[in-house]
């Protein structure tokens, strides 16, 4: 009896040609979505507890679910080069990496442009010089490393851009009306979940209040 083929957990398993330094660099770039998810959103929940960040992460989860649904329905194969990587046990259209990064870049840019959260309009350079180049490099890395065709990464990018814009509208036009309810709920009170969308410059607000609290008499008594 033949054994069934093995399937790997491919969260960080990215291959490149030995000796290809550029491929090595792009392999790390290809892992940016993992770094954003684990290092960004998880740490954001631990230290910030912002509803905007939580719904940002929820949108990405929904986007990736849509991606998997489309892949399963279309069932377009990955390019032939993928066979050399021994990583062709899933479908290729649309690219989930490209979709993830373009969703993230779109939502992040709209947050920044609308001065929601800790970013202000003057910091749009973060999106222009860091986030969007990373999105484009991730898309390029998937083709260069042989995991996707050009059409597959462009499809993922387009879908991520559209879903990112739509989800931003849903959150900040509809769901934001329920943020006070979440703040006042048992979940919100237990985990100190909050919404600071109404504060134009959260970093300055928190800084000013931290300095004021330190100088306040009751604060000094509490720390004595």
Automatic annotation (TrEMBL):
Stretches that traverse the bilayer: 25-47, 97-113, 125-145, 151-170
Main location: membrane
GO biological process: lipid biosynthetic process; protein N-linked glycosylation
GO terms under cellular component: endoplasmic reticulum membrane
Membrane topology: Multi-pass membrane protein
Domain named Phosphatidic acid phosphatase type 2/haloperoxidase: residues: 51-168
Localization, UniProt: Membrane
Gene3D superfamilies, alphabetized: Phosphatidic acid phosphatase type 2/haloperoxidase (1.20.144.10)
Keyword line: Hydrolase, Membrane, Transmembrane, Transmembrane helix
Any single Pfam family the record assigns to this protein: PAP2
PANTHER family (alphabetical): DOLICHYLDIPHOSPHATASE 1, PALMITOYL-PROTEIN THIOESTERASE/DOLICHYLDIPHOSPHATASE 1
Protein name per Swiss-Prot or TrEMBL: Phosphatidic acid phosphatase type 2/haloperoxidase domain-containing protein
Source organism phylogeny: Eukaryota, Viridiplantae, Streptophyta, Embryophyta, Tracheophyta
């Amino acid at each position: 009896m033949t054994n069934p083929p093995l399937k790997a957990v491919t969260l960080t398993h990215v291959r490149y040609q030995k000796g290809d330094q550029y491929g090595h660099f792009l392999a790390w770039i290809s892992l940016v979505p993992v770094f954003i998810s684990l290092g960004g959103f998880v740490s954001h929940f631990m230290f910030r507890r912002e509803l905007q960040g939580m719904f940002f992460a929820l949108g990405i989860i929904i986007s990736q679910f849509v991606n998997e649904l489309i892949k399963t329905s279309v069932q377009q194969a990955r390019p032939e080069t993928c066979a050399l990587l021994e990583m062709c046990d899933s479908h290729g259209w649309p690219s989930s990496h490209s979709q993830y990064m373009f969703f993230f870049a779109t939502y992040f840019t709209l947050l920044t442009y609308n001065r929601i959260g800790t970013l202000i309009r003057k910091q749009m350079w973060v999106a222009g010089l860091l986030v969007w180049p990373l999105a484009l490099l991730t898309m390029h890395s998937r083709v260069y490393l042989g995991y996707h065709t050009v059409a597959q990464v462009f499809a993922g990018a387009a879908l991520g851009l559209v879903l990112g814009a739509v989800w931003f509208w849903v959150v900040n036009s509809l769901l934001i009306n329920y943020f006070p309810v979440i703040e006042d709920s048992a979940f919100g009170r237990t985990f100190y979940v909050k919404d600071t969308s109404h504060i134009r410059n959260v970093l300055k607000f928190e800084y000013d209040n931290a300095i004021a609290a330190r100088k306040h008499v009751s604060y000094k008594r509490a720390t004595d």
